Amino acid sequence: MLLVxxxxxxxxxxxxxxxxxxxxxxxxxxxxxxxxxxxNPKIYEGAAITLSWFSKNIFLSCCFVKGPSNxxxxxxxxxxxxxxxxxxxxxxxxxxxxxxxxxxxxQDSVLVLGFSEELNKLLLxxxxxxxxxxxxxxxxxxxxxxxxxxxxxRLDVQLxxxxxxxxxxxxxxxxxxxxxxxxxxxxxxxxxxxxxxHLIQQLEQALGEMKTNHCRRIVRNIK
Length: 223
What we know:
With 223 residues, the protein is α+β, with helices and mostly antiparallel strands. It contains eight helices and three strands. It has helices at residues 7-13, 21-37, 41-65, 79-99, 103-111, 117-141, 193-209, 213-222; strands at residues 147-158, 169-180, 183-191. A three-stranded antiparallel beta sheet has the order 1-2-3. Helix 2 (21-37) packs across helix 4, helix 2 packs parallel to helix 6 and helix 4 crosses helix 6 (117-141). The model is unreliable at 53-75 (pLDDT under 50).
């Protein structure tokens, strides 16, 4: 299974080719921190200052050794560019971790970005090192949905009314008890037998589809 990257994501990730491997590793750390605590503009501003200082030192070293024309790096990097780069890397790592794609599929996914072999290996290592932690963070961020506890039901039949003395109008009333965040809630539903029968058929069909190979592959990837 390969990741599908939009043109916007490709553009954001393209910035990684302009920085040192140590900076890419720092971006990976910021990306995981972003998942843990959410976005923080100060982090991007601090990273922009650090990167500009780092680039300036490389520039001066290259001027001393080979002359200024041999270095094409940018001395000024805005916090917006840093943020886009981190967000692009965050998307790459989270999507890969959610789908639990293999090493080969991850490498094939980033191949379309046109990165160097060294950068591709660095991104792969970032993915492998952080995949388990990212999946743990994503599982904590997932909403806690209600789960089934118990069910009560009652069948009511209306045999007559003021306007119609003879009639048969059945209704099924269901009292559904649910567990959510260690609390119990109750939902009361009412329907006619025909609708209830249709609902049962749809649920049985869904359970049958869960046994297919396609659904089993999806379930293995999201666990």
